[in-house]
User: Fold this.
Amino acid sequence: MPALQLVLDSLPVLLQGMVLTVKFALWSMAFGLVIGLVVALMGIGKNRLLGAIARCYVSVMRGTPLLVQIFVVYYGLPGIGIALEPTPAGVLTLSLNVGAYLSESMRGAILGIPRGQWMAAYSLGLTPAQTLRYVVGPQALRLAVPSLSNSLISLIKDTSLVSVITVTELLRTTQEVIAATYQPLPLYLAAAALYWVLSTLLSVGQRLLERRLALPGRH
Assistant:
């Protein structure tokens, strides 16, 4: 079977795998944002214990390979009585991993807002939580958008690693088609092209969002 015809015939199946990859990444990103925000607030708070826990968490997650983290969660946790199905295990691992990176992005963005903004909000009677929500948070979001978008693009590609625990995303789907057709090169190239398309679309969306959130005169 010609390579092009093989790719065209396999495209519907590969597209289904791509849709699952997007869903997987979005779920992981959503949970990662929650984790990242909590860890960022722990890191900038005045409680030294919470700050130390946040720094330790970020150090471990950023200092160990994602593939090893996947193996620890999926194959290691059952040893202490915590057994997860492949999909929840993959989402949990990716969420914990990306959460560490997002926490640093958010922490940097929050600390990048001038201290005078906090003081001005306090002078108006706002609490620290209200100041963060209504004054500092929206400004920090503008600063964090490029980093958050880059994390999502990286997450799309990182989902390929969960194929090792039989999660049926794009790469795993491609491998199943290859097992039936014995044509690895065109199918792996097709999968790479789909990952590239997803990354390109997200990059375009990132630029549009940056323009929308840009301050007047900074387009």
Notes: Residues 20 and 169 are 5 Å apart (CA to CA).
